[in-house]
Design a protein that fits this description.
This protein is mainly alpha-helical and 320 residues long. The chain has 14 helices and 8 strands. Helix 1 packs across helix 3 and helix 9 runs antiparallel to helix 14.
């Protein structure tokens, strides 16, 4: 059975078309993802139509932002054979379906963790988000350094993956700055709510407390360690997705890969080793013996005992 968290944007894990825009400088807001999924469930709806802003109940400049975030979070996708037609993905339906969705009104923090994982693994549509959670090593960073290192990594990663020495196109400093600012506003709760009230609304992912603004201007810090309201079922589902994407032919994974490799739960959720160990010790019971953690003979590893782990069933059990 497939894992609904595995998307086209996570395979292959290469930077083929980096993006530093699309969000119109807006982090997504509480109702946006639900609105986008519901809208594309109607075959007559189009984000490019003149009445899209009426249907979504937002200003025209936010319509494309909703489309962007729904796509980046793998909640909507292009319909097969119809390039202009968008439809909900399996993940979009599992979460937001009005009839039997797990969390149609985005009330459970577990859903925010899943959405964060989808965004932070999207190397080409959310390049800054991917780099910050999968490549950047420092816990503390300054925005100017962050921006410079991000672009240099993107340039090298893109050009190393291209044939015939193709160069990454130049992005303006303003474009990069707006993208980095949007990234920060996705994860940091506002300390300065000046200006239009609507523009001061925090992104729901800020509730996860993954990044904090430091007293020094333009300095921030990732919060590594125990995560409140991050259920073991989400860890198990993302371990399965990570395993399938990165190491599909292996029956064992070392603890270090689960902690520090790109796409790993340890990196995406900024866990520490003690917290990860606690989650792994529950895997055997949580996954009905499909995954098992063992520390015997001085090795800390997870074993895949069965190949039919059902992430949807895992989360259904959690959401009840």
């Amino acid at each position: 059975m497939g894992n609904f968290l595995i998307a086209d944007h996570t395979k292959p894990l290469k930077l083929t078309s980096p993006s530093f825009s699309g969000h119109q400088t807006f982090p997504f807001r509480y109702t946006w993802l639900k609105k986008g999924v519901d809208a594309v469930a109607d075959p007559t709806f189009s984000f490019s139509s003149e009445d899209a802003s009426v249907t979504l109940g937002v200003g025209k400049n936010m319509v494309s932002s909703i489309r962007h975030w729904c796509s980046v979070a793998r909640l909507i996708k292009t319909d097969n054979g119809q390039r202009d037609r968008l439809v909900p993905t399996e993940f979009g339906k599992i979460i937001f379906n009005n009839k039997d969705g797990f969390d149609p009104y985005l009330e459970d923090p577990a859903t925010l963790w899943l959405i964060h994982w989808q965004i932070a693994t999207n190397i080409n549509q959310a390049t800054t988000w991917y780099w910050a959670f999968n490549i950047l090593r420092e816990n503390r960073f300054a925005l100017d350094t962050f921006k410079k290192e991000l672009y240099e990594w993107a340039r090298r990663a893109y050009e190393d993956g291209q044939q015939m020495g193709k160069k990454l196109r130049t992005f303006s400093d303003n474009t990069l700055q707006r993208d980095v600012n949007c990234f920060i506003r996705t994860y940091c709760q506002s300390r300065h709510n000046h200006g239009v009230v609507e523009e001061s609304f925090d992104c729901p992912i800020a509730e996860l407390n993954l990044i904090f603004e430091l007293p020094d201007d333009n300095e921030y810090e990732f919060q590594r360690g125990e995560k409140e309201y991050l259920p073991g079922e989400v860890i198990a589902a993302t371990i399965d997705a990570f395993w399938t994407l990165r190491f599909p032919k292996r029956d064992t994974l070392p603890f270090s890969e689960l902690m520090y490799a790109p796409l790993s739960p340890g990196r995406i959720f900024r866990l520490d080793e003690d917290t990860m160990t606690t989650y792994l010790e529950d895997l055997l019971q949580l996954t009905d013996s499909a995954l098992e953690y063992d520390e015997s003979e001085g090795l800390k590893q997870v074993y895949r005992r069965q190949s039919d782990l059902d992430p949807t069933g895992l989360l259904k059990r959690y959401y009840g």
